């Protein structure tokens, strides 16, 4: 059980929550995630990155986008509600050291997991360039927080409604062409974005770390549902990751696997929304 | 064997019992041998392959008594030798024959904590029943006294009649024991340490307790009620339970001792690391470890409409492997709507490690067995979804070190079978999470934790048992190790006073 201490709506479908979880707050490191359930009998287990933690308050922060039934349901929870199941911190923490010049690329909701990593990299003495991107201005999140960390800050929107009208790969390519080129890139966002970031940096041989958000069940290495091809090896994202060398990840396979249950998930989401709508009508 | 209705089996037993009961004390060995072995009543195969309810329904009272009368009560008691925890089998069966169920359960509880579970899932035909004198005399292990079914009968009788006794707990010792993992090994340690008056906390990574009993073995073989009943007993004894707690992540193993003040820790984290075949195409969409498939179906209840966890919609399924896990996965796939389910096994039926009853039930439910074959490559379509499996054929060669005839590949025997789902059930390794986060804990090269004869690990105050020590083994062995660990812990804590 974990109580919701704070809730904020960022955009139409992006929410921030602070959850009471003192042990997780104490143990967590950048790059780790939790798994939660909105119902511990029939709910599914979904992984969400820990965006921040406060050991004094004994809380962790999650930022999530409504993409399916469980996240939709989570968005209906209010302050003081109890989340029936929360487990973590899971995954291998990000390896943080002073690499030199680091570029952090965050796309859409991926900015949330990127935030603690950028923070830790900055603290370790890196020169941090942050590129954040979204489809449109309203979908940009954590702009001020990221700006506060960055030595250099670049915003892109697909539609040009804010910052540069470009995909994040455009400024990334420019940075790779500069001297000195970046010592490392960290890219977190939709799989397709991470794939293209990796393709962008490949010719320049800039090490590019990506954080994978595969399907998971247990999150402890027990099921293999989260497995991905990394080079010639098969890795379990929940324990070996979530971060991997983007130049070695088989993104096409990963994206196919993410879509394993697309039809069923869409159906669950539709049923949930329709039911909620009916309930509202009844109440009205 | 054709299907016989449970009522009919009960009726037959009733009339036979009327015949034998009056002369029971004077029955000759030859006469006992003539009493027909009692068949387990089951749900009709056609009906059950579409539901999740338990397949084996359990003996009627008369069937149990009649089966118990078959026991020769022989002085040699070979059956006890075959039992990993040395249950006093002839004695509990004698009580059933007398209709004394309360005494029968008491005998079982002397040595086993989970008779309702073990009666259902133990490979009896390789343990107690293999050594049964009656089976030997009748030259058929299937005609041995059905010890497992009788064990189950007594345990069910206790539970159904509300006779479950909460074990007495000694006065508080002020000592704290942490139990990591709530599989059979952990549950037993919790009970045995709590009985001594220690404060016991179970830490479980999942949101539900029971380990493999919950997430692996399906309801149709081991109903959740039974596990719930055991857990209620532990709660009533005052065992504290922390679910959603991954030791090694939420808290380091050592920190349980150093920061949280536990005086002893038991690690019973099981063999939860799925082994894959390492063949081409194994990461295509539609290939699952049996762990994943069964966890979705059991723990996450994907078979129920209102469950959020999806399960892959399959029409033709291929399960790779020949153990209990493969049987469970194949039968589950049938229940989840797959029209065709193949089990592909490299050797022959004789070598299959699965419980005999499960193989029989799987066949009755329409699972097709393909022996002396193996998968070599999974074939996918342009969207990376499984459309088939390339298999190769084997023949049996000379016996290998284990005495089993080793399968030998037949050259150029490749052929493709059309399936849309592949479930890999070729074994489980030990999950490295605890050992990776506890470097001082000695493990062997397979990652199994090393222990001494009291189940103590290389680290003071830390004990381990069950699959994490043995490698993927059995419920009864896990339970036995739990018992021994608890003894070790209780002794250590008593000496420390
Ligand atoms: C599908 C299937 C069918 C089987 N059928 C049979 C059968 O018919 N007969 C038979 O005798 N045996 C059978 N077995 C084997 C049997 O279930 C196991 O040998 C037995 O359950 C092992 O018990 P255990 O207590 O060691 O571990 P498990 O039952 O594996 O329990 C371990 C528990 O520890 C938890 N855990 C793991 N890591 C951590 C951590 N870091 N922190 C906290 N908790 C953790 C896990 O979530 C799990 O709940 C089967 C196994 C499977 C998978
Ligand atoms: S989520 Fe099950 S192994 Fe990673």
Q: Helix-strand pattern of chain A, N to C?
A: EEHEEEHEEEHEHEEHEHEEEHEHH
> Per the principal axes of the C-alpha atoms, what is the gross shape of chain B?
globular
Give the names of the bound compounds.
flavin-adenine dinucleotide, FE2/S2 (inorganic) cluster
Task: Report the count of strand segments of chain A.
Answer: 16
The number of E-state strands of chain B comes to 16
Count the domains of chain B. Answer: 3
Spans of chain B of at least 5 consecutive residues whose pLDDT stays below 50 are: none
SS class of chain A = alpha/beta
Walk me through this protein's architecture.
The complex is a heterodimer of chains A (284) and B (497). Chain A folds into two domains: 2-90, Translation factors (Elongation Factor Tu (Ef-tu), domain 3), CATH 2.40.30.10; 101-258, Nucleotide-binding domain of ferredoxin-NADP reductase (FNR) module (Rossmann fold). Helices cover 31% and strands 31% of the residues of chain A. Chain A has helices spanning 22-27, 69-75, 111-123, 143-149, 169-177, 191-201, 237-240, 251-258, 262-283; strands at residues 2-11, 14-20, 33-37, 46-54, 59-65, 82-83, 85-90, 101-107, 127-134, 152-157, 164-165, 184-188, 208-211, 227-230, 233-236, 243-245. Chain A is globular, with a radius of gyration of 19 Å. Chain B has three domains: 6-160, Fumarate Reductase Iron-sulfur Protein, Chain B, domain 2 (Orthogonal Bundle); 176-272 and 429-496, FAD/NAD(P)-binding domain; 276-426, 3-Layer(bba) Sandwich (FAD/NAD(P)-binding domain), CATH 3.50.50.60. In chain B, helix 8 (115-121) runs antiparallel to helix 10. The model of chain B has no long low-confidence stretch (mean pLDDT 94). The interface between A and B is large, with 44 and 42 residues. Bound molecules: flavin-adenine dinucleotide (FAD) and FE2/S2 (inorganic) cluster.
Highlighted features:
heterodimer, A: 284 residues, alpha/beta, Elongation Factor Tu (Ef-tu), domain 3, Rossmann fold, 2 domains, seven-stranded mixed β-sheet, 9 helices, 31% helix, globular, B: 497 residues, Fumarate Reductase Iron-sulfur Protein, Chain B, domain 2, FAD/NAD(P)-binding domain, 3 domains, five-stranded parallel β-sheet, 16 strands, binds flavin-adenine dinucleotide, binds FE2/S2 (inorganic) cluster, Helical_ferredxn (chain B), FAD/NAD-bd_sf (chain B), DPD_II (chain B)
């Amino acid at each position: 059980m974990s109580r919701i201490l704070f809730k904020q709506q960022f955009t139409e479908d992006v929410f921030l929550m602070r959850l009471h979880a003192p042990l997780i707050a104490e143990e967590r490191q950048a790059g780790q995630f939790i798994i939660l359930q909105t119902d511990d009998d029939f709910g599914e287990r979904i992984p969400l990155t820990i965006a921040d933690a406060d050991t004094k308050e004994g809380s962790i922060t999650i930022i999530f986008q409504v993409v399916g039934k469980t996240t939709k349901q989570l968005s209906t929870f209010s302050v003081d509600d109890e989340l029936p199941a929360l487990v973590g911190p899971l995954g291998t923490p990000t390896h943080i050291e002073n690499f030199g010049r680091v570029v952090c690329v965050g796309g859409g909701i991926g900015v949330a997991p990127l935030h603690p990593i950028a923070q830790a990299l900055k603290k370790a003495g890196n020169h941090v360039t942050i590129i954040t991107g979204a489809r449109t201005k309203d979908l940009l999140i954590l702009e001020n927080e990221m700006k506060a960390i960055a030595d250099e800050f670049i915003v892109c929107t697909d539609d040009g409604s804010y910052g540069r009208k470009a995909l994040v790969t455009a400024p990334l390519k420019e940075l790779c062409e500069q001297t000195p080129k970046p010592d490392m890139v960290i890219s977190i966002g939709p799989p397709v974005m991470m794939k293209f970031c990796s393709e962008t940096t490949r010719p320049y041989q800039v090490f590019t770390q990506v954080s994978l958000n595969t399907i998971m069940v247990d999150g402890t290495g027990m099921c293999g549902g989260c497995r991905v091809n990394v080079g010639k090896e098969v890795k379990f994202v929940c324990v070996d990751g979530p971060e991997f060398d983007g130049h070695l990840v088989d993104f096409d396979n990963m994206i196919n696997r993410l879509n394993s249950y697309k039809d069923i998930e869409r159906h669950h989401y539709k049923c949930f929304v329709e039911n909620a709508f009916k309930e509202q009508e009844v109440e009205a | 064997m054709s299907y016989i209705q449970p009522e009919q089996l009960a009726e037959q037993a009733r009339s036979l019992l009327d015949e034998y009961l009056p002369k029971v004390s004077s029955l000759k060995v030859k006469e006992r041998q003539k009493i027909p072995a009692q068949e387990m009543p089951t749900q009709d195969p056609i009906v059950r392959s579409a539901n999740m309810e338990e397949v084996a329904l359990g003996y009627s009272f008369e069937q149990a008594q009649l089966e118990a009368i078959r026991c020769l009560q022989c002085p040699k008691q070979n059956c006890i030798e075959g039992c990993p925890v040395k249950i006093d089998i002839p004695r509990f069966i004698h009580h059933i024959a007398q209709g004394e169920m309360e005494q029968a359960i008491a005998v079982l509880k002397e040595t086993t904590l989970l008779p309702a579970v073990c009666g259902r899932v133990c490979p009896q035909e390789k343990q107690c029943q293999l050594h049964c004198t009656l089976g030997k005399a009748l030259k058929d292990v299937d005609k041995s006294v059905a010890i497992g079914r009788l064990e189950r009968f007594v345990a069910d009788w206790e539970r159904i009649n509300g006779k479950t006794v909460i074990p007495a707990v000694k006065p508080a010792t002020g000592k704290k024991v942490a139990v990591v993992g709530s599989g059979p090994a952990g549950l037993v340690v919790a009970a045995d340490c709590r009985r001594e008056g220690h404060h016991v906390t179970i830490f479980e990574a999942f949101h539900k307790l029971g380990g493999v009993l919950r997430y692996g073995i399906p309801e149709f073989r081991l109903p959740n009620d039974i596990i719930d009943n055991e857990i209620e007993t532990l709660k009533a004894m005052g065992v504290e339970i922390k679910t959603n707690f991954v030791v090694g992540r939420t808290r380091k193993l050592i920190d349980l001792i150093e920061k949280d003040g536990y005086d002893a820790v038991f690690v019973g984290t099981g063999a939860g690391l799925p082994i894959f075949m390492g063949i081409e195409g194994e990461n295509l969409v539609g290939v699952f470890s049996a762990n994943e498939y069964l966890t979705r179906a059991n723990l996450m209840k994907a078979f129920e409409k209102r469950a959020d966890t999806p399960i892959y919609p399959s029409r033709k399924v291929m399960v790779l492997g020949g153990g209990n896990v493969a049987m469970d996965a194949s039968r589950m796939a049938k229940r989840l709507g797959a029209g065709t389910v193949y089990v592909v096994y490299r050797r022959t039926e004789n070598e299959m490690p699965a419980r005999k009853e499960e193989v029989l039930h799987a066949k009755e439910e329409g699972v097709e067995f393909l022996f002396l074959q193996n998968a070599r490559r999974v074939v996918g379509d342009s969207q990376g979804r499984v459309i088939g499996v390339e298999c190769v054929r084997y023949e049996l060669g000379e016996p290998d070190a284990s005495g089993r005839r080793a399968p030998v590949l037949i050259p150029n025997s490749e052929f493709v079978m059309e399936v849309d789902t592949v479930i890999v059930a070729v074994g489980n390794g030990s999950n490295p999470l605890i050992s990776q986060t506890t470097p001082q804990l000695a493990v062997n090269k397979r990652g199994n934790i090393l222990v001494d004869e009291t189940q103590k690990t290389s680290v003071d105050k830390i004990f381990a048992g069950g699959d994490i020590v043995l490698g993927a083994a059995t419920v009864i062995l896990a339970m036995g190790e739990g018992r021994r660990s608890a003894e070790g812990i209780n002794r250590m804590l008593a000496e420390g006073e």
